[in-house]
Structure formats: C-alpha cells, structure tokens
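Our example pasted here:


***
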Amino acid sequence: MQRRTLIGACGAIPFALRAARAEVPQPTAANLVTATPARWDGHDCLAVELTDAEQALRLATQGGGNRPSIAIVAPAFADGVIEASVAGVLTGRGAPDDRGFVGLSFHIGEAFQSHETVYLRMTNGRLNVPPPPAPRIDRAIQYVADPGFHFSQSRERFPGRYEKGADIALGRWHRLRLEIGGARLRALVDGVEALGVDDLRFAGRRAPVGLFVGDGSRGYFRDVVVTASRQR
C-alpha cells in the first residue's frame, strides 16, 4: 500500500490508497443509459449514451436537467481520486443546444436517487475550432448535485462558481481527474486544474462511482482508475 498526499483545493490530506483500474470499464449497473464496448479513435473503450426511451422523454420535456443517466463502474468510494480518459460526440438525436455532456459521478445514492457529478460540455471548450462564443466558452466544466443543485440552480444563485472554462473540444480524448477529500473537490483536465469546489453536498458518503452522459451525447470512457482512500 502506497502513502500519498493530495495537495490543492482538497488541502493536505494524508491517504492510504487502494486503486482499482479498468482499461475498458465494465459497468455493474446502468440507469437511463446503454453501455457498450467500442473502439473509437484508436482505443478500446466503453460507449455510453441515453436509452432511446430516455432521449425521447428529454426531447418531449425540454431536457433532463441532471437526471441520473449513469453507468456504475466502482463501489464503495468516499474520498480519494477518480480519473478517466473521456471523449464526447453528439449523437444527432437530441436538441440543437446539446453540448456533448460527459463526466464522472460519485457519492451515488441508493437506486440512483442522488449523486454528485462533474461533467464536461465538450462543445463549450476553448479548443474547438472556431471556439464557442461567450458566455458558453466560460461554461465547459460543471459541478452538479441531484437532487436540488442542478446547473440552472447553481448558475442562477452562484454565477461562475460551479462552472468554468476549460481547454477541451468535441471529438478528442481528455484526461479528467477528480481529487476528493471531505467537502472539497479539485477537478483537473489534462493535468490542469479547471474547477474547485469546497462544499460537496454528500461529503463523506461511501457509495458507488459512475460514468455520466447527458442529452444528445455519446461518451467514450477508458483507463478508469478509482483510488479510494482510508483515513489514518
């Protein structure tokens, strides 16, 4: 067992780390999504997207907020590090304003009744050509919690606090890393800090980790590493 320390938005937190790694994730449960082994952009991976029924429902009801469209890939995580190589494309089955929503969920409650998620809006990234206009360019990475703290609520109450710009683009691989310790989270994209949160809604909950996608989006996931911590 290896001793490490997470530094940054999470503070200096000593951890005894145990890592689980999957080159191609193998979901143990899925909610509102399909998850299929695939090969994309030269890599074996897992393709995740909304079920036909869920996509139709979201079109009929003008979007799905942050409904728990998640494939679970690891159990019993409270604090530590979650990281994965992720990519997103548009399926053409959603609304015109879909953004290529792809992310990582954690602290997932029983029967998917609650979760915390950090996701990327791939079409809002600064690396797209041409880059998106304002304010979209400043809304490429987002923290949400369900229930009660969807992106629309956080944007209205705390503009710019839970979403930031990021160097990402549609149709390319990025490394998303979440460092979680207590109520604090630090999100890095390709090794660069993109978002910090110091008031996680379900801090300390020991619960599953999942792969998240949103409206009109297909996410590709590979090389998922979940490093759960044990306080000493």
